[in-house]
Amino acid sequence: MKRIALTLALVAALPAVGSAPALAKTKDDVPDKTMYEVYSEAGRSFDIDPRLIAAIHFTEQGYGPGSRNGTYLGPFSLGDNAWSRYDDAYKKGTRPKKYPYQSGRLERCRDKHPCIHDLFDAAMATADFMQDNKADDELDSNGTRKALCYFNTGAFDKKCDYEKRVIKKAEEYDKKNFGSGGGHDRGHGGHGGSGFGN
Description:
By secondary structure, the protein is mostly helical. It has seven helices and no strands. Helix 2 (35-46) runs parallel beside helix 5 (119-132) and helix 6 crosses helix 7.
């Protein structure tokens, strides 16, 4: 009788079939911590939360270098139209001394700038694109959500799941890892386009 009571008590303590286990808070999974400097500078230069830039890189390429050939290239999967419009964005920030996918280490870049495969050049172009399309330093703002969908679909009027995935990932990062990125004086860097905040 005691054995049956003990078995019933153990079964009662188990979670119900199909119930999800409690999830631990996800930790930052950026593979090379020097990437934080790139994301932070892109965010600071264009008043974008740098966690958003990191999350776009993760969503597009899992922090990888991206495709060398095809329609969408580099760590942020930028297309020809976006790249040709924003390729000079790297001039509006300060390039970190060392980071992955650096032009000088990539044969396809031949140490020239801008290079769509260079992490800094591509991050800066992505941040410039996002700001120009009404993203701001709030992860969950309407402008940021619309800019993310536009980045993914090429159209403002399309609804997409992409923005939800990127924002969810961005919220997992610890802000402390990004230093002082984002939220700087909007006049910094001489961004002269017709984008947000000008």
